[in-house]
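Query structure, 476 tokens:
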């Protein structure tokens, strides 16, 4: 999809709030739309009038003007784009104007974002490619720096779509080695330095928790470190740590067929950090960021890790693995400790498809957040309000910290008597490895993908929480 500014095409899209006068239409059509069709500009209501002798407009409702957010603009623009594709329009103009508290720039950015969400398809494995008809979007705007604003959103969405592609790719093609190779390819020629640690190097380093999880897989693990340091390496960086389990069978604590169904997506945390780095570097954001990705499969073999095994870790802490399916926290233990001790981190944010319990707590549309630094999380969640990626904090209560202590090892990876509140136990476990660095944990097990996309997001991988991570680093 290409964007231009100022070109009036045959078809024009207007986003209209509830009760807004339809003075872009002739009087006849306007009264027909409002009285005969009862079009009120309700949220995502659509009116389409196309043809040789018609007004050639698509109207999409925004709802009550005082309640319109950037997210409602994105949603409405997605709705408009899907409608244009449905009726096979190839080029269209979007009329940009301020709405309620939103500036014209915000509306412009929201429209570009929405059009791009609607344009995303994952058809790598389809013999017959599905192409969307809408190829050309012209923004009718008075904003001076429109081209720069458009460019930034397009690049951000390239990052989001990179995340989606990685998450949607099946585990027979995406495993630690191929993930590392894709990262090397994608970041070639950018200002991002990519370091890949292979199995031998991880052994030398002592990343024993990551190695223990990967042990049963024929695919070797990788630790992938992406450094983007436009401010130089003496300035601290935001560290972005991702869970990259390219397939989670559960190990000997094997999942059911139903439970295993979506487990190619168990690397969504890693993919989010990669997509964020891609957007930061290509938009030349002047902030330091380092991503640390732990990539492995969680498989079964005769010499696999078993429930009850005690393993080591990069930190040296011993862990009794009471459940091999709680593998994400094991690999994150090493990746977090790496970020806390080997990277000059101002703060650490990790993203992980860590627990099914977060879905029980918050559903599929809200990311669970946990922290050791309330002010930092408040800042982060304020950003998430503007990106429309819903988040809700869960407490790391002392009780959970107590439950992480082992009887015959330093730590246990699940509670001896699990309470059901597995999301917060997992966070309490992770906190042992951040070494007091200000830290936020994002449990994206519910939000990173869904069979049926939520709101305006595509089916499959959502790209959550790339937008929030990007805007947070940018604002830091
Ligand atoms: N990858 C899963 C978590 C998950 C579940 C992600 C559903 C996406 C959708 C994780 O490794 C896992 O298996 N967690 C277990 C932990 C349990 C054994 C304490 C879980 O949540 O059931
Ligand atoms: Zn698991
Ligand atoms: Zn997992």
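Result returned for the query:
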């Amino acid at each position: 999809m290409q964007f231009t500014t100022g070109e009036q095409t045959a078809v024009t899209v207007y986003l209209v709030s509830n009760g807004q006068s339809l003075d872009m239409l002739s009087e006849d059509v306007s009264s027909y739309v409002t009285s005969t069709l009862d079009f009120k500009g309700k949220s995502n209501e659509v009116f389409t009038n196309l043809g040789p002798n018609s007004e050639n407009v698509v109207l999409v409702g925004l709802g009550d003007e005082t309640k319109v957010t950037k997210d409602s603009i994105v949603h409405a623009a997605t709705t408009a784009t899907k409608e244009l594709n449905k009726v096979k329009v190839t080029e269209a103009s979007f009329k940009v104007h301020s709405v309620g508290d939103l500036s014209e720039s915000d509306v412009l950015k929201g429209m570009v974002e929405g059009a791009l969400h609607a344009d995303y398809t994952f058809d790598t494995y389809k013999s017959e490619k599905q192409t969307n008809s809408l190829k050309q979007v012209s923004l009718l705007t008075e904003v001076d720096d429109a081209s720069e604003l458009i460019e930034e959103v397009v690049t951000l969405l390239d990052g989001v779509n990179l995340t989606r592609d990685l998450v949607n790719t099946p585990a027979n093609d995406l495993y630690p080695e191929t993930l590392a190779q894709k990262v090397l390819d994608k970041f070639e020629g950018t200002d991002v330095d990519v370091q890949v640690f292979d199995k031998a190097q991880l052994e030398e380093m002592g990343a024993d928790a990551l190695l223990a999880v990967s042990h049963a897989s024929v695919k070797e693990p990788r630790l992938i470190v992406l450094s983007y340091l436009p401010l130089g390496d003496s300035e601290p960086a935001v560290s972005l740590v991702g869970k990259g389990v390219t397939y989670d069978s559960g190990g000997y604590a094997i999942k059911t067929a139903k439970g295993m169904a979506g487990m190619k997506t168990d690397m969504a945390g890693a993919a989010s950090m990669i997509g964020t780095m891609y957007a930061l570097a290509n938009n030349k954001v002047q902030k330091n960021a380092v991503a640390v990705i732990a990539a492995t499969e969680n498989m079964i073999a005769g010499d696999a890790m078993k429930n009850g095994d005690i393993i080591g870790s990069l930190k040296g802490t011993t862990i009794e693995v009471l459940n091999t399916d709680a593998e994400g926290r094991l690999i994150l233990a090493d990746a977090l400790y790496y970020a806390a001790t080997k990277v000059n981190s101002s703060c650490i944010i990790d993203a992980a498809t860590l627990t099914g319990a977060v879905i029980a707590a918050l559903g599929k549309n809200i990311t669970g957040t946990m922290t050791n630094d309330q002010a930092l999380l408040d800042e982060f969640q304020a950003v998430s309000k503007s990106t429309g990626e819903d988040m809700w904090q869960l407490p790391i209560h002392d009780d959970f910290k107590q439950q992480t202590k082992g009887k015959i090892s330093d730590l246990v990876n699940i509670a001896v008597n699990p309470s059901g509140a597995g999301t917060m136990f997992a966070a309490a476990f992770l906190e042992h490895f951040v070494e007091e660095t200000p830290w936020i944990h994002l449990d994206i097990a519910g939000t990173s993908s869904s069979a049926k996309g939520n709101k305006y997001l595509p089916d499959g991988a959502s790209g959550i929480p790339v937008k929030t991570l990007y805007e947070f680093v940018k604002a830091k």
